[in-house]
């Protein structure tokens, strides 16, 4: 594989030879008073080269940005894997207590692990769980730790998991996690503080048709008797 | 997109088990009677023979405090063929109860809305309860029951907002009673304990009132656990 440093140097050298940034390259859109055909070709060639190099630089910048993001994602995903392995031996009761102390409902834990509520209740009473389920439970606990570590703004991680990603749909991080989209959960939690993940992009990644899927002609409201009710949405 | 009656999963990947919170031996006595509960062998008002029934009453009117309303609306439950999810909209007069009984060969039932009955709360023997529905199951039931009565289809995620506070409360009561029975407290006494805690001073800041705000629920669950530790200490 070619050295990125050498490639970068060769590009910058090429740019210098073209005079990029110095203003020495004539503008083809404003030809000189009496351009010869030869000088016009030279100017056009240099302009083309500038465009090509600009394109290369843009591509390179995008690649560098993506590589940086990948490296950071790699950081927390590796940490997540390592922490999951560490926690997998902690035992079902310990892990469930951790999640309950955070404020998770058993039914939400059950959904995210992919088991029934009664299975969770059995684990709480000390019944053994399979290695696979121990690992899933550990993965969720580790995920919560990662989210709180990398994004200290999230002080109530259980509540954060229950809050819809966007106002227009009832999809929450619980739904993302339950369907195996842990990476989307981490991105939505902005564990990479430099990332500016738009919640709508998160939803698009989860379900490209979500706007249609969750469009409703109804809305909920609190009725005069104090109970939540449903009515047609005003158009 | 026009709203349509929903179903659990697809024909390729049906999710019938997602209808239920618990079935058969999984059902616990500590869970309060709730919408969607299925009881076998229940004495219904005006009928000589016991019936298998499903509780239709909406969660917010099923009880006042700890006490169930004097008469509860139920639908008769009978064995029925298995309907693939894509066919559920062809049976709008019933709530399919696919894989209701899972011991041995899965057996499928349905609750028939046209055969509704009234039962007295004391007729609902908790030992005869064979299934409790999940939140998803309750929302699907509400969608079909309302459609049966009004021909209006409301998306299930809109029902979520109006059934989740009561469902959350039932979860809390169930867990509390299980934990307190482990401490040697009777189910009745444990139920009174948690009801008193939920009711608080009946103000808008009482736990029961705060359960209506989804963003408060994680905090309330933590408070319940802290209260349990206090009671035990």
How does this model look, in words?
The complex is a heterodimer of chains A (235) and B (233). With 235 residues, chain A is mainly alpha-helical. Chain A has eleven helices and two strands; from the N terminus they run H-H-H-H-H-H-H-H-H-H-H-E-E. A two-stranded antiparallel ribbon of chain A has the order 1-2. In chain A, strand 1 and strand 2 form a beta hairpin. The radius of gyration of chain A is 27 Å and the shape is flat. The longest helix of chain B is centred in the C-terminal third of the chain and has 27 residues, at 156-182. Chain B is built from five helices and nine strands; from the N terminus they run βββββββββααααα. Chain B is globular. Chain B is α+β, with helices and mostly antiparallel strands and 233 residues long. Chain B has helices at 135-150, 156-182, 187-199, 207-210, 217-232; strands at residues 20-23, 38-42, 51-55, 63-64, 67-68, 72-79, 94-101, 107-119, 129-133. The termini of chain B are far apart. In chain B, strands 1-9-2-3-6-8-7 form a seven-stranded antiparallel sheet, with helices on one face. In chain B, strands 4-5 form a two-stranded antiparallel ribbon. At the A-B interface, helix 3, helix 5, helix 7, strand 1 and strand 2 of A face helix 2 and helix 5 of B.
Sequence-ordered SSE layout with sheet pairings:
The complex is a heterodimer of chains A (235) and B (233).
Chain A: H1 4-18, H2 37-87, H3 92-102, H4 106-113, H5 117-124, H6 131-150, H7 157-162, H8 173-178, H9 182-188, H10 199-206, H11 210-213, E1 218-222, E2 228-232
Antiparallel strand pairs in A: 1-2
Chain B: E1 20-23, E2 38-42, E3 51-55, E4 63-64, E5 67-68, E6 72-79, E7 94-101, E8 107-119, E9 129-133, H1 135-150, H2 156-182, H3 187-199, H4 207-210, H5 217-232
Antiparallel strand pairs in B: 1-9, 2-3, 2-9, 3-6, 4-5, 6-8, 7-8
């Amino acid at each position: 594989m070619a050295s990125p440093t050498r490639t970068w140097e060769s590009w910058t050298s090429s740019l210098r030879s073209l005079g990029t940034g110095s203003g020495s390259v004539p503008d083809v859109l404003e030809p000189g008073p009496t351009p010869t055909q030869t000088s016009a070709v030279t100017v056009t060639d240099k302009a083309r080269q500038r465009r090509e190099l600009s394109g290369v630089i843009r591509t390179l910048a995008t690649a560098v940005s993506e590589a940086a993001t990948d490296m950071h994602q790699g950081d927390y995903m590796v940490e997540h894997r390592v922490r999951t392995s560490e926690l997998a031996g902690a035992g079902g009761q310990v892990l469930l207590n951790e999640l309950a102390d955070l404020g998770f409902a058993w039914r939400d834990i059950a959904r995210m692990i992919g088991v029934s509520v009664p299975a969770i209740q059995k684990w709480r009473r000390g019944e053994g769980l399979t290695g696979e389920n121990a690992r899933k439970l550990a993965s969720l606990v580790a995920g919560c730790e990662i989210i709180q570590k990398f994004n200290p703004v999230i002080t109530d991680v259980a509540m954060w998991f229950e809050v819809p990603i966007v106002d227009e749909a009832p999809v929450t991080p619980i739904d993302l996690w339950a369907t195996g989209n842990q990476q989307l959960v981490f991105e939505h939690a902005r564990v990479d503080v430099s990332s500016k993940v738009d919640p709508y992009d998160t939803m698009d990644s989860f379900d490209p048709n979500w706007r249609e899927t969750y469009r409703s002609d109804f809305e909920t409201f609190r009725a005069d008797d104090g109970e939540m009710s449903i009515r047609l949405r005003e158009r | 997109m026009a709203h349509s009656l929903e179903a659990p999963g697809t024909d390729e990947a049906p999710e019938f088990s997602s209808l239920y919170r618990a079935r058969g031996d999984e059902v616990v006595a500590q869970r309060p009677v709730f919408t969607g509960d299925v009881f076998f062998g229940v004495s219904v008002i005006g009928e000589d023979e016991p019936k298998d029934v499903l509780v239709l009453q909406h969660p917010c009117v099923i009880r006042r405090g700890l006490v169930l309303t004097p008469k509860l609306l139920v639908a008769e439950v009978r064995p029925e063929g298995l309907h693939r999810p894509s066919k559920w909209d062809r049976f709008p007069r019933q709530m399919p109860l696919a894989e209701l009984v899972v011991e041995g060969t899965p057996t499928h039932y349905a609750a028939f809305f046209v055969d509704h009955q009234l039962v007295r709360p004391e007729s609902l023997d908790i030992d005869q309860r064979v299934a409790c529905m999940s939140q998803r199951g309750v929302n699907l039931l509400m969608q079909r029951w309302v459609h049966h009565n009004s021909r209006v289809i409301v998306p299930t995620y809109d029902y979520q907002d109006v059934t989740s506070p009561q469902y959350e409360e039932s979860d809390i009561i169930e867990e509390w009673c299980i934990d307190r029975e482990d401490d040697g407290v009777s189910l009745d006494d444990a139920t009174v304990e948690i009801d008193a805690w939920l009711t608080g001073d009946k103000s808008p800041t009482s736990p029961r009132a705060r359960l209506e705000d989804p963003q408060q629920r994680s905090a309330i669950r933590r408070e319940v656990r802290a209260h349990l530790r206090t009671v035990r200490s």
